Amino acid sequence: MNCKTDLPVMLPVSKPEPEPFCGLRAWHILPLALLAIFGPSLAFAQSDEGVLSPLAVLMNWAPLLLKGFIFNLVISVSAMALGTVVGAMLGLGQISLIPAVRGGSWFVTQFFRNAPWLVLLFFAMFLLPFEIDLFGLKIPFPDWLKAILGLSLPVMANVSEIVRGAVNSLPSGQWEAAESLAYTRLQTLWLIILPQCVKRMLPPWMNLYSILTMATVLASIVGVSEVMTLTGQALASEGGRPELLAPFYGFVLLLFFVYCYPIARFTVRLEKKFAVIG
Amino acid sequence: MDLIFDWFRVLYQETGINLPFLYDEYDRNRMVDGFLTTIRLSLVCLFFSVIIGVIGAWLQGSGFKWTRRIVNGYIQLFRNTPPLVQLYFFYFAIGTLLPRVENDWGGQSPILGSFAWAAISLSFFAGAFNVEIFRSGIEAVPRSTVEAAEALGFSKLQIYRDITLPLAFRVVLPALNNNLVNLVKTTTLAYAIAVPEMLYEANQIWSDNVNVTEMMIFLLLAYFVLVGVLVGAMNRWERAMKIPGYG
Amino acid sequence: MSWTPADPMVSLKDVHKSFGDLKVLNGVSLDVMKGDVICIIGPSGSGKSTLIRCVNALNDIQQGSILVEGLEVNDPKLDKLELRKKVGMVFQQYNLFPHKTALQNVMMAPVRVLKQDKAKAEATARALIKKVRLEGKEDAFPGELSGGQQQRVAIARSLAMQPDVILFDEVTAALDPETVGEVLQTIKELAEEGMTCILVTHEMAFAREVADHIYFTDRGVIVEHGPPATFFTNAQDPRTKEFLSQIL
Fold it and tell me: Which fold has domain B2-240?
């Protein structure tokens, strides 16, 4: 009896290549989005001579906001690096042969995966000391560093799952073949399994980076002066004019979109490429 | 019950571990309200995001190029920008444009409160993911199975209802559940516009009692259990929906 | 112009069909009388499957006419439900509905499409499952059945609609060799009961045994046809001869 192979198999769930955004290439979006954001505010501009138009106000603040955004990127890259290193070890812990290590790694992974990012960020903010006393040397522990640590916690848990998933997705024949060739477990892992996994891990890892980058704005809630905080301060110092809200928040949305959308497209491209090669 | 509550008061006095939401009725009510708000927000967003997903997937199959493009634009925009900024945009930028209504105390208040805006914003955010999930599910149903139903005289609507949707639903269930779990976690963002959900109420309690450590640990555990229960239930559901000998 | 049983049950006249630039059928004509069993054979890509899919309106045609009991298939206003009540179809990949049990697969269309009473449809379905010798497998899901068993459920599913003619599209091509026999046996019994059958097949021995008439197609045309006795021993066209020499 041949049970499984006879069925018309469900086609693999394919992620569609995102169509060009509204039929436009990436670089088309920038001017269009600017127009969409500032178009309405131009209407306000004509009314009042003494007050700067929303566009002009935003232009004044744009350099500062851009600096803030770069700080977001710094946070994202650092948290990603830290989370990846620790998460990879945790992921290997999850496939360890020692039950205690496996169980412990599994629990830590699940714990930090189930917790909302914002709660983890609060966790890091409030529970880490503001300075560390290392052999009498006081190392300050600023908020932005805490934010990096807080954001790297969920990254770590997700990387751990990516590693475990990729290793488990390899056919067991690979392990058996390596074992029959007298490789040790570590050699098998290092020489046979992990090189094959890198390709499988790359798309979800990039996806995670994109999510992390978008999560860096959470740091504003706990008072790190990144782009969202600066936007709030800019709006406040302009006297809270309501017609400024849409352009300013729209500008922040645009910054992230311009950065994350190419990453998303590239991820889909990689996924497709690897799906073909297998 | 009161005995247990009292025990926690004693625990505080003896050890300094302060869990006021267990012995103090006022704080307890705040925490329960926060929990219920989180659940309520999750359910509302879940409902609307699934509806957005179904309609969006249907529109994506439309013959009009511009309909597809607009749906795609929506998906990409909401997937590639921070949900928190989306929330601010909805709440502050759009919310201030809407007219105000007179409230019970004779003052002016916005038509939509922060809960409503959080629900709208998060529904659109999660909905963008659901559109793609549903679409991929419909595409995963083999054309030949649909043809077999056609050959048996099923109408288009019958095929969609009896064959395509039930099969697609099983394919997308894991991805859908994953997204819904994420949605529950994302409801914490509503904290930023002062929706009194769990994180917000916990924050209130630790501000009043100066017991950040205890509240933080409790909050982590609460979400761990809440999401854990949800994931467990979803997994059970997935197993129950599994077709024997299939996939 | 109304149809009588004396007229051909299925009648193709000068049927042309192409997929884009690729011409698949180049003027095919054939008649099938009530109770006939005809086999269509030919090399891969000669348009056999397309031919019978056109009869069931799964593919449309560009030119010519296909009449099924007087119903014009190539008519934009065709009542597809009317056609599909008359014409059953069995596929190479069975195409059972994987989320329904064998019994549900068989009784679903009568209930949903013909609006039959559920109890009656179930009784018919059970009888049909018995007829294809799958008693006891009523509650099995397709994934739990072997290929041959699934294909017999598919035949029962088609029979449940009480069609006047059944199209078999290479129904044994995807099967393990040891289960081919049980499916062919089922088809043979149907043929002996007088069911009108149009088969696309690679099973030459089977075609020879059950067919009343054999059609050989190549490059979208019928090259040669005749009763099995003369067709297999006395082929005239060089293309037919070459094909037969390769497979016999």
Answer: MetI-like fold (1.10.3720)
Q: Where are the beta strands (DSSP E) in chain C?
A: 10-19, 22-32, 37-41, 63-68, 71-72, 87-90, 165-169, 196-200, 213-218, 221-226
- The shortest C-alpha distance from B129 to chain A (Å) reads 11
Chain C residues whose beta carbon lies within 8 Å of the beta carbon of residue A11: none
Distance CA A149, CA A120 (A): 9
Q: Is the dihedral of CA A189, A190, A192, A193 positive or negative?
A: positive
Interchain contact, B151 vs C56, CB within 8 Å: yes
User: B46 to chain A nearest CA, in Å?
Assistant: 17
What are the backbone dihedrals phi and psi of residue A48, each rounded to the nearest 5 degrees, phi first? -115, 120
A55-274, what's its fold? MetI-like fold (1.10.3720)
Cα B73 from Cα B69, distance rounded (Å): 6
Helix (H, G, I), strand (E, B) or coil at C46: coil
Rounded average pLDDT over B151-178: 89
Nearest CA in chain A to B146: A8
Give the whole-angstrom CA distance, residue C226 versus residue A144: 86
Taking alpha carbons only, the member of A215, A207, A91, A227 closest to residue A147 is A215
CA dist B44 and B40 (Å) reads 6
pTM: 0.78
| Residue C201 predicted with pLDDT over 80 | yes
Task: Tell me what the mean pLDDT of segment B11-38 comes to.
Answer: 86
Q: What is the pLDDT of residue A109?
A: 94
> CA gyration radius for chain B?
23
What total of structural domains would you count in chain C?
A: 1
Domain of residue C58 covers: 10-247
Phi, psi at residue B236, to the nearest 5°?
A: -60, -40
C55 pLDDT tier (thresholds 50, 70, 90): very high
- Terminus-to-terminus CA distance in chain A, angstroms? 28
Q: Would the pLDDT of B96 be above 70? A: yes
In angstroms, rounded to a whole number, what is the distance separating the alpha carbons of residues A88 and A36? 42
Whole-number average pLDDT of chain B: 88
* Torsion of Cα atoms, B178 then B183 then B188 then B193, to 10°: 160
What CATH number is attached to the domain comprising C79? 3.40.50.300
Tokens for A16, please give them.
Answer: 């569609």
**Where are the alpha helices (H) located in A95-193, listed in sequence order?**
99-114, 117-127, 143-169, 172-180, 185-187
* Count of H-run helices and E-run strands, chain A: 10, 2
Residue ranges per structural domain of chain B:
2-240
Say what angle helices B198-209 and A117-127 make with each other, to 10 degrees.
20
For B191-208, how does the pLDDT look when each residue is reduced to its tens digit (9 = 90+)?
Answer: 999 899 999 999 999 888
Distance CA A78, CA A83 (A): 8
> Cα(A141)–Cα(A137) distance, rounded to whole angstroms?
12
Query: Chain C partners of B147 at a C-beta cutoff of 8 Å?
Result: 58, 91, 95
